Amino acid sequence: MKYQAVIFDLDGVLVHTDRYHYLAWKTIADELGVTFDEKINNRLRGVSRMACLEIVLETYDEPLTDEQKAYYAERKNQRYKQLLEELSTQDLSDEIRHTMVSLREHGVKLAIGSSSKNAKLILQRIGLDDFFDAVSDGTNIVHSKPHPEVFLKASDYLGILPQQCLVIEDAMAGVEAALAANMDCAVMGDALGHPQATYRLNHFPDLLHIVLGQDEKRKA
Ligand code: B16
Ligand code: MG
Fold first, then answer.
1. What pLDDT score does 214 carry?
2. Which of 86, 148, 156, 210 is least crowded, fewest Cβ atoms below 10 Å from its Cβ?
3. What is the CATH number assigned to the segment(s) 18-84?
4. pLDDT for residue 219
């Protein structure tokens, strides 16, 4: 086996909550009257809520006080949580579910490595609350991606060395975090453009062959 553990990012990898983040930030940007598009949104992937707000505010003329920033971050989160109410077990694809179950059957440890403080709520809504061997998320870290803390904590919780863990990411900041943690990284979506990604995961079930070391063809 090439890797003993897989650490999955959550938003944008296991579930399309990245769409809900986009819609919630768009509401805030519209209220502030600043431009917000997919290009700006891609910079928000994997980074903490407050760091996202700073990016959204880059084109806002007036400096905001800490209280105002806290207000907008909280409003965004309320809108996001409203959208999360639509999430159900139907939002986890069979392809992803089957791949994770196969990995587990091969003795691979599975963890979550997400910057989100809402990770446990999301896992509950998609029926995966008791599924993972470890969950490292926005509630147990001081620094969000691109800092490696969230992945290093996950490997620590699993008791598996970083070099034996493979990270799955959709965010540029997430790939940076994995590399800084000394972990290989398989990428999807926006992170497909990262030049240092270890594997490009165009088809999720390919993950099984990558982890078992049966396929070097997808090496980036
Ligand atoms: P929250 P991931 C990240 O989750 C999102 O990609 C990022 O856009 C978001 O700002 C961050 O979580 C914090 O989320 O506001 O719910 O605490 O991709 O690392 O799973
Ligand atoms: Mg993500």
1. 84
2. 86
3. 1.10.150.240
4. 65
Q: CB of 136 within 8 A of CB of 111? A: yes
In terms of Cα–Cα distance, which of 85, 66, 76 is closest to 32? Answer: 76
Domain spanning 5-15+89-218 has what CATH number?
3.40.50.1000
Pocket test for ligand 1, best of 114, 137, 172 (most atoms within 8 A of CB): 114
Ligand nearest to the CA of 147: 1
To test the pocket of ligand 1, the residue of 76, 116, 175 to mutate (highest count of ligand atoms within 8 Å of its CB) is 116
- What's the angle, vertex CA 21, arms to CA 17 and CA 24, rounded to 5? 130
Q: Could you report the average pLDDT of every consecutive run of 10 residues in the chain (220 residues)?
A: 97 96 97 96 96 97 95 98 97 98 98 98 97 98 97 98 98 98 97 97 96 73
* Alpha-carbon gap, residue 137 to 145, rounded angstroms: 11
Prior bond of 63 cis (ω within 30°)? no
Helix ranges, the chain (H): 17-32, 38-44, 49-56, 66-84, 94-105, 119-125, 149-158, 172-180, 206-212
